[in-house]
Structures are given as C-alpha cells and as structure tokens.
Design goal:
The chain has about 200 residues and is of the alpha/beta class. It has one domain: Flavodoxin domain (Rossmann fold, 3-Layer(aba) Sandwich). The chain has seven helices and six strands; from the N terminus they run E-H-E-H-E-H-H-E-H-E-H-E-H.
C-alpha cells in the first residue's frame, strides 16, 4: 500500500508570478504516485515595527511553520529576485530555522529552487544559487533541471539548470510561458521522484 508523502512547496510572491510557478511545480509533484504537494508561503516583513500581517493570508497558501519543514520529505523553495538574491521575507524565515539546523532535521532531504524576475538578465541565476546556501547549511541535497528536458535548451524566456525561472516583465504582467510551465512541472516531477527514493 502506497502512503502519500508530502513535499513542501514554499514560496514568497508579491505580484503573483512566483505563486503561479509554485502551483505548476505542485502540479508536477502530484503527477508522481505517492507524492503530494503542500503549498505554503511566508508573511511580508516591514521596517515599521508596528506593521503586522494577518494570522491567515487573505489569498494564496497558508503561512509555513517549522513543522512543515520537519514533516516534508522534500522542498521546493521559490522567491522573486531582489537584486540577485531572495526576497527579505524569505531570508527572514530561513534566519529563524537555527533550531532545525541544530537537530539536523533537513539533512539528506532533497530541495529544488525557483524564481521570477522582471527582466531576462534580472538576477535569476544568482538568486537560485544564493537560495541554495541556507539549504546546503541544513544538509539538503540540491536537485536542478537536467538538459534531458528539451525545453531547457530551447527556452527564450525563463529556465535554468539551477532551477525553474520566469521572466515577468517590468510591470510583472507577462504570463508564464508554455516553456516555463513545462520546466516548472519537470522540476516538480524530478523533486518528487528523488524525494520518494530517498525516503523509502
């Protein structure tokens, strides 16, 4: 009997593109028997110490908890680019995971990454690479997108071997292209297959 195992798809999205990517990655995960996706997000942060977010987001996925990381068998992590790095809200969340690091909770679990930027050369690859760093400190195993996925070699929009990506446009209004969708789903499938093998 196959018991479904959860893969966490954790993202931050300000204008919606990264959230849509997360949904395609989740769809890819759930094409693999035995794997289910758990979509979660992080709250915004503010320099105003009195600014607070609601306990439950008005739209999108619920906020992530440390328990989500403890119980998942794999992680897809997504953030828009912010000057070639992950958004501050996502970085703030990872800065609070020291307790899990002390317990080696994430050691040996596979992880994949995804990002969105406003322009073609807006820091996608550096964002994906720098997002790997806290995951490597946690002992996670990074999965990318291999060139056996034909869209990776033919894309004229997003898509990298380091993870899935999307070019959203300067006003964040460009839809996710068919190629970008296929690469998101391919990343989800690869993560799910890897996670199931490693957790068995």
């Amino acid at each position: 009997m196959i018991t479904d195992k959860e893969i966490l798809v954790l993202y931050y999205s300000q204008y919606g593109a990264t959230r849509k990517m997360a949904q395609f990655i989740a769809r890819g995960i759930e094409t693999i028997p035995g794997a289910i996706a758990r979509l979660r997000t992080v709250p915004k942060i503010s320099a105003n110490c009195e600014a607070i977010e609601p306990a439950i987001p008005d739209t999108g996925a619920p906020y992530v908890t440390l328990t989500d990381l403890e119980t998942c068998i794999g992680l897809a992590l997504g953030s828009p680019t912010r000057f070639g790095n992950m958004a501050g809200a996502m970085k703030h969340f990872w800065d609070g995971t020291g307790g899990l690091w002390m317990k080696h909770t994430l050691v040996g679990k596979p992880a994949a990454l995804f990002t969105s930027s406003s322009s073609m050369h807006g820091g996608q690859e550096s964002t994906l690479l720098t997002m790997m760093l806290p995951l490597l400190h946690h002992g996670m195993l990074i999965t990318g997108i291999p060139y056996s996925e034909p869209e990776l070699a033919s894309t004229t929009s997003g898509g990298t071997p380091y993870g899935a990506s999307h070019v959203a446009g300067l006003t964040s209004d460009l839809p996710i292209s068919d190629t970008e969708k296929k690469l998101c789903m391919a990343l989800g499938r690869r993560l799910a297959l890897t996670a199931l093998k490693l957790s068995s």
